[in-house]
Design goal:
Length: 197
């Protein structure tokens, strides 16, 4: 494990679980050019008034509560008009990337404890690629799909147990037939205990 990955794991362990619950924010489209427009107003950032800049940042904060995003947005709001523009153009993207890396490190920590091979591989790929795009893609879709793969393997292993009850076997087979990531996750975390409960 590279030293930066170990540092991320240590930092992630200390951070709030809210990072995992933070969803993607689409209030602004920060690409690094001075003609970036916000999705809600259509006005280029370099033409926005101070009130419009504040509103665009407030929209981001309403959708994205990652620590780095909150920190950088707060600094921009307490700074100059140019600070707010810089946040919308590139600062938000970088702050969200920082939050994504921390969240992925936390996911990796849990996957290592659970032996979830597909999630471990997905986390490592996202961390090795080390781009905002790959980190965001993993959090938005890659993690869900990798976790579903690991959950299906877990459930298939349950079925290999000769002592499994008929009710649990039927429930496990039904979940595997369904195959949706949500059904697999629910069964692994909660459903199997409800059947035996």
């Amino acid at each position: 494990m590279r030293p930066t990955r170990a540092a991320l794991l240590v930092a992630a362990t200390a951070m709030a679980p809210a990072l995992l619950l933070a969803g993607p924010a689409f209030a602004a489209v920060p690409t690094g050019t001075s003609t970036v427009t916000t999705a809600t107003s259509g006005t280029p950032v370099d033409e926005m008034t101070e009130a419009e800049l504040r509103a665009a940042i407030a929209d981001i904060l309403a959708d994205d509560s990652g620590r780095a995003v909150v920190r950088e947005a707060g600094e921009a709001l307490n700074g100059t008009v140019e600070d707010m523009r810089a946040f919308l153009v590139s600062g938000y993207r970088q702050a969200r990337f920082e939050d994504d890396l921390v969240a992925i490190a936390r996911i990796l920590d849990g996957a290592l404890r659970n032996g979830d091979k597909a999630v471990i591989a997905g986390c490592n790929e996202a961390l090795d690629a080390h781009t905002p795009e790959t980190a965001r893609a993993f959090r938005e879709t890659g993690y869900r799909l990798a976790q579903a793969e690991d959950d299906a393997v877990y459930i298939a292993r349950m079925l290999a147990d000769p002592d499994i009850s008929d009710a649990l076997r039927a429930a496990a087979n039904a979940v595997l037939d369904d195959g949706s990531p949500e059904a697999l996750r629910y069964f692994r975390v909660t459903g199997q205990y409800e059947v035996n409960g």
